[in-house]
């Protein structure tokens, strides 16, 4: 039987740097644990545009469809701001999500004990925080038609469409309930059913799906109240499920609560493939950080934790994922810190690759 | 010449209680400062539904159009959750906003020194915070057509439309620049121009308007990054301008940062009327809080500060507004606290009306 396959798309900015550290980890698993992957690499985002005039080449798209998991670094940078909407780096990422049909985006917001002081929130508000935001990723206003800028009368009008079918809501709700079952069995669904009909349908379908998960305590919250409650007392949540656009804002706010954006991974999952594995893409929550690219300042942990999520969700290697996460914890407890996490007394500053090496040692 | 007119719409839940305290303040201004208003009162939200089967009677709408300023308490409550979308309490509020064409919603997020400890954020992150969010209030996905739940194939589809014309963006941008000119001359515009064409148009129009305000430093931020930055270091902002839906989430998050939702007012302004005053409605940011309604626990300060905004923006009585705000500050410095602000040592707990009385004494 052939090895499971991984496509690495480092992308732009700090993407290639942090991905180099993930490579070290993959090699370590091959050498020391005899867990082998067939790894290939390709371009996405601005890097792909520079090479091919498109942020995602059709060949790359085909490769992504064929592998067991995609690991993505980050896309975008000021250099590409002038490009037309249709070829901006982000379009590459959105095309991957859409064509791989990765409808369930898992964004953990976890606060690492060693880093609780980095949050702008009080320590007791964030210490031990561990919530999971499940964001719908392939529909809603990101992809709905009609869209565009049209002429009407004497002026231009910008139009986007929020559109959710029952089955789109149902499948992401189901994935959130499944997750809640493996966690604290609490799910909060967020929309604006008081203002938007798509939110009414969202609430109805989630409520309907909840009948199959009687053990899970389901609640509903308007997304604005959700934003508030995340800032006030985030520990009230276990799993949150919400749509593409609300999920974008709420998961970023939640990520920032932990104080360490350079630490947060994500998984985007689709339907099971023939081999039973879900279509999957893993990426750090942080962006391409062009201001520090190439300086060895980037924190590779978010990207390495994304690989840990791949071990868990794509390759059924939960124990190995835990091993990797523990190694990262050990390194943090020892006070090893990349540039984004400096400021405390008695810590050891390291570069991007220094952090990767420290994690390998801890493994 | 007749007195300026105010229509009071107490609404539901704690609305009537907090509005009773505003009445005391209005009476004080009449008695002691000889500033007289013609005050009338009517129903909105669930209260209007109970009386008339609609959350806003046409007569009330006509009165709101005719007065110089509307003061609104709050709408909604669990009792009305079962109602059809078209007659929910919120529809009354949305109709007022839309038909009065109150396109510019000013939501200050200010942290009162005496209350900085109430924030879930660290004191240095919020102490002295004073930002103003300008939210577009009459367009976008709240009102765009087509909307609804339709049948398609074998399933239902929920649809809402985000729609912004150039002139809608321009007028709210202008009001934000005007505000920035009277503050620290910094404006940050938030959208998702990387994903939504309506965001691209938004960014273009705001940039165009900025040419008329060369003194104002304009920046653009994606709304997800904006949510993050509000949680990380809100003091980086002075004025923020954003659309209806993003404004809903971002202003609620910003409000919660201050730690005291019971303290935050808002003003919704439209075009100038014949008498030069803008169409205007003032309301606290907090909701109807049905769980504590009728118990004398509600904090009337947000509603009283909304009246202060009315003095400033509708009646050109900035000095009187400042007088009222100072009185509130004095009361807080003395340690007078409603139930939402208890927890510290050495404070004096008071009821809703106790707080109103204390403010009158301080005046
Ligand atoms: C880069 C951008 C298109 C993307 C999004 O809006 O989804 C990002 O913000 C994210 O959350 O992954
Ligand atoms: C009550 C609701 C319709 C309203 C809104 O969504 O605008 C509220 O959340 C607000 O922010 O004023």
From TrEMBL, chains A, B:
Question: Which positions are annotated as binding substrate?
Answer: 97, 107, 135, 224
| Keyword match Repeat | no
An example of a GO molecular function for this protein is: NAD binding
Cite a GO CC annotation: cytosol
Q: Where in the cell is it found?
A: Cytoplasm
State which pathway it belongs to: Amino-acid biosynthesis; L-leucine biosynthesis; L-leucine from 3-methyl-2-oxobutanoate: step 3/4
- Entry cofactors: Mg(2+); Mn(2+)
- Identify the residues that the record assigns to the Isopropylmalate dehydrogenase-like domain, covering every copy: 5-359
Q: Where does NAD(+) bind?
A: 77-90, 287-299
Protein name stated in the entry:
3-isopropylmalate dehydrogenase
Gene behind the chain: leuB
